Amino acid sequence: MLDLFSIFSKGGIVLWCFQSTSEIFSPSVNALIRNVILQERSGNNSYNHNSLTLQYKLDNEFELVFVVAYQKILQLSYVDKFLNDIHLEFRDKYKNDLQSGHLATDFNFKASFDNILRQCEQWAKSQAKLPKQMRTFEDSFKSKKTVASMIERKGDEKNKKTVKIVENKSIANGKVEEFDYEDDVIVANRAKLAQKLASKGKKDVKKSPKSPKAVVENRTKKPRVWELGGDSRDLPTLDFSTDKEGDVEVSADTQLVGQMTGAIRDLEVESDDSSSEEEEQGKPSPKKTGGMFSIFKGLVGSKALNEETMRPVLDKMRDHLIGKNVAADIANKLCDSVATKLDGKVLGTFDSVAKTIKATLTESLMQILSPKRRVDILRDCLHAKQQGSPYVMSFCGVNGVGKSTNLAKICFWLIENDLSVLIAACDTFRAGAVEQLRTHMRRLLALHPPSAHNERCMVHLYEKGYGKDAAGIAAEAIKYAADAKIDVVLIDTAGRMQDNEPLMRALAKLIKVNQPDLVLFVGEALVGNEAVDQLVKFNQALADYSSSVNPHVIDGIVLTKFDTIDDKVGAAISMTYITGQPIVFVGTGQTYTDLKALNATAVVHALMK
After folding, report:
1. Which positions make up the signal peptide (predicted)?
2. What is the spatial distance between Cα 110 and Cα 164, in angstroms, rounded to a whole number?
3. Is 66 helix (H, G, I), strand (E, B) or coil?
4. Residue 112 vs residues 62, 86, 420: alpha-carbon distances, Å
5. What is the pLDDT of residue 278?
6. Contact predicate 599/269, CB 8 Å
7. Contact 193/186 with Cβ under 8 angstroms?
8. What separation in angstroms does the CA of 192 have from each of 155, 195, 198, 201, 277?
9. pLDDT over 90, % of the chain
10. Which residues pair with 520 in a beta bridge?
């Protein structure tokens, strides 16, 4: 019932292979290698590709991979046992060849394979025939109850409590001992309350006027005047409701102009480690205690790592990652992936368990944050301009994460690189959404007036008001940009919760109808476990509600509010791990120049310190 079984090295050399059908399985195995093994996602030993389920086992000592493939519809209970048995049999039979590195040996493994497969199938049948055994009393939860957990408390009319203490001896003899006692805590609290009320009454008597001639001051609450709060006479100058579009003067900070030319600067994460390696050379380093990996620094020697050896440090690693704002589920998967990758690996004489695990985790995190494909928006925009069509970017996300603000930052960056932009106001739900984009447009035009670009208007706003169909407005905006020879279209959408099905259907419709070149999910760096739920459900909704064979899902991530988290950078790991898509932009402030590119090295360093 197995379609494929293969043993190959991590270098790509196939040592032995069994195939029951003439179907070509290389695309599925390549997908497993590309999407799981190379991306450090080996915590789960199964992977689904098309109609196949692939289960695998890694041998880290000899750098081997054992892969089994079968139809997804089948439920084979013996596959895990089969992989373990075949792994041990192959190691024991060809241990000398593997240690010597003779991978070109003709491995005659057919007889052993058939024997182990037959034994595992018979074992699965015997397990299916066995009736389910009831658990004993010692295995039940009730047997683990203590005497303290069996105490029952009941109140009576006199505010007394009867405590029934049930012991094993009393149960055996059929006796239950009862003890009555008065709750001293309630009595003491009542006495304190009575004393407090009595003292308060005396104070009120002293404060009462002794004669009817006493004058009581008329105390009127005065409004609080805040420091630097301004005067109420300035309020009329802050009322813009009656101003027209051309009446508002926008002050331009000319210092911002020219700072965003070219590629976006890399993100810099502050670190507490200010000492450099040059300063530490020649100085005896003090012996440090505590920390994430300190408990295993003394374990050195030539030994093979196993689950029992790594479990304590992996638990500390998981807690450390969760403390850095990595989602709990992602932290567990990362730890499982490290454990799977290092299981059976032999340490060198001067390698410690902690150092090896830390290096492996750092390598895994760098692999996760590294883009799997080329991300060069400026090049794509110029290519679309040469083709005579605008480059379209759509922004989506939940409420309040900063979609419109970061859209304006990206718009400023594009203008700095001499690309004209059309902003499509497709948030037709939130009050003030169009006015917010109009304000950004005015400020951007003040920074880059047409006179500085050969009388060419660099930013436009396409809006149709509120209550309209967002997909239709986006389609009209793209057509308008194509006719007006505008280079880039930025589509601003309404914020929506990932569980709101009608709004998620509307977003899927907008993306399917307009087919943007880039769909960016805007998420804030403050979230932890919620980041996983948001990205999974947004991606799933775009796939389910698009009614397309190849739905357009999320292409990249915009991580906002990064300046508010210090070194709690775990949201970057959580979001990238879920989708496998790169973090294209990072918002770090409130000015147009506060837009950075993700620096994987700096993020991993902040995460591991």
Report:
1. none
2. 68
3. strand
4. 20, 8, 68
5. 38
6. yes
7. no
8. 22, 5, 10, 14, 63
9. 31
10. 395, 556
Which among 341, 493, 324, 507 has a CA at the least distance from the CA of 423? Answer: 493
Give residue-wise pLDDT tens across range 458-483. 999 999 999 899 999 999 999 999 99
Give CA torsion, residues 425, 426, 430, 435, to 10 deg.
Answer: 10
Element (H, E) at 537: helix 529-544
- Phi and psi angles of residue 492, each rounded to the nearest 5 degrees, phi first: -95, 125
pLDDT band of 237, cuts 50, 70, 90: low
CA distances (Å), origin 65, targets 107, 145, 432, 456, 494: 15, 45, 57, 60, 47
Task: Judge if pTM exceeds 0.70.
Answer: no
Q: Is 21 helix (H, G, I), strand (E, B) or coil?
A: coil
Q: How far apart are CA 479 and CA 94, in angstroms?
A: 66
Q: Whole-angstrom Cα distance, residue 543 to residue 4?
A: 30
Residue 559's pLDDT band (cuts 50, 70, 90)? very high
Identify whether the C-beta of residue 556 lies closer than 8 Å to the C-beta of residue 581. yes
Per DSSP, helices labelled H in 343-460 are: 353-369, 377-387, 403-416, 433-447
**Cα(first)–Cα(last) distance of the chain, in Å?**
49
Other CB atoms within a 10 A radius of the CB of residue 598 amount to: 25
- The pLDDT assigned to 146 comes to 65
- Residue 256, pLDDT score: 76
Angle, helices 570-579 vs 600-608, to 10°: value is 120
DSSP assigned state of 265: P
Mean pLDDT of 131-140: 72
210: Cβ–Cβ under 8 A, 6 or more apart, which residues?
none
Tokens of 536: 């999974």
Q: How far is CA 500 from the centre of its chain?
A: 20
Residues 238-241: contacts with CB within 8 Å, 24+ apart?
none
d(CA 582, CA 557): 6
Strand partners, 393: 490, 518
Backbone dihedral angles phi then psi of residue 149, each to the nearest 5 degrees: -75, -15
Phi and psi angles of residue 524, each rounded to the nearest 5 degrees, phi first: -95, 150
Q: What tokens were used for 250?
A: 């926008």
Are the beta carbons of 58 and 340 closer than 8 angstroms? Answer: yes
